[in-house]
Amino acid sequence: MAGTVRSNPADLPIGVFDSGVGGISVLRRLVQRLPGEDFLFFGDSANAPYGTRTPDDVLRLSEAIVDRFLQVPVKAVVIACNTATSAAASTLRAAHPDLPTLGIEPAVKPALEYVRAHGGDVVVMATPLTLREKKFADLLDRLGAGVRVHRLPAPRLVELVEAGKADDPATERYLRGLLAPYMPDLGALVLGCTHYPFALPLFRRIVGPGVPIFDGADGVARQLRRELDAHGLLRARQAGGTVGFDNSDPGQIALGHKLFMADLGPDD
After folding, report:
1. Which whole number is the average pLDDT over 143-155?
2. Is the domain of 63 the same as that of 27?
3. What pLDDT shows up at residue 10?
4. What is the pLDDT of residues 227-264, one digit of tens each?
5. Which residue from 140, 166, 259, 266 lies 20 to 30 Å from 199 (Cα-Cα)?
6. In the annotation, is 81 catalytic?
7. How many helices (H) and strands (E) does the chain have?
8. Is residue 159 located within the same domain as residue 117?
């Protein structure tokens, strides 16, 4: 990522990062909502998955990526990784108070609202670190009263997506095995890792058309627009933005391009 000289801070790009290529599911929504902005995506596939690392390790890796973005520089950062949000978002915001820094969290609230109206349990599928962090426990304590919410770790799915096997028969067997115990009472499914939406066609086949599937990407995109506007950093143009890809494992850059262009169906 080379340094950039731009006289207007609003013309600077937005940095987006993830533990690997999964955050591209968020990047897609950001570009859809803000087509006039420039984005730089960095995937840390060489250190993936983050979800099985310690919080201190994830914080260290996240700080290094933000330092990398600041050399560009960027006008805002989006942590397109639930695990890194849990482990690093508050520290990064404190360290860079003038840099709008947004994280992502599992879309539990809309899932709870749905099942309160229609019945059933909520299954939150995420990485082990996300599910055991206090941030997630606090979220459930605040919002989850009266609903059965099941925590379902799926660390292997990150590795399968990173290997380009998001729609592979072996991946479908893995997911069917994980979800089988919850299917009789499943009212809503939350994809709490940004890698997981790339297996959306599999999830739809497994849970059927009657079970809604939630992720947090669109909420982050809406919040980013509000933050940029509040800081006077929203670009005036309505189209023509650019997207750059980088990765700590250069071999994953091509997969990142492929996933960015993937057709995940009508809900994407």
Report:
1. 94
2. yes
3. 96
4. 999 999 999 888 999 999 999 999 999 999 999 998 76
5. 140
6. yes
7. 11, 9
8. yes
Do residues 13 and 90 both lie within one domain? yes
Residues spanned by the domain of 210: 108-214
CATH number at residue 48: 3.40.50.1860
Is 242 contained in some domain?
yes
- pLDDT recorded at residue 256: 94
CA distance 177 to 170: 11
More confident residue, 182 or 267: 182
Report pLDDT digits (tens) over 179-191. 999 999 999 999 9
Shared domain check, 31 and 97: yes
Q: Identify the active-site residue in 26, 193, 233, 243.
A: 193
pTM: 0.91
193 catalytically annotated: yes
Cα separation of 235 and 257, whole Å? 24
- The C-alpha atoms of residue 92 and residue 101 are separated, in whole angstroms, by 8
Q: Report the pLDDT averaged over residues 199-207.
A: 96
Q: Give the chain's radius of gyration (CA, Å).
A: 18
Cβ neighbors of 14 (< 8 A, separation 6 or more) are 30, 34, 37, 38, 39, 40, 74, 75, 76, 77, 78, 224
Q: Which of 81, 115, 129, 243 is catalytic?
A: 81
Closest C-alpha to 219, from 258, 179, 254, 192: 192
Phi then psi dihedrals of residue 168, to 5 deg: -100, 145
Domain count across the chain: 2
pLDDT value of residue 262: 83
Residue 265 within a domain: no
Mean pLDDT, all residues of the chain = 94
Residues 231 and 203 in one domain: no
224 & 208 share domain: no
Residue 218 one-letter amino acid: D
One domain for residues 234 and 168? no
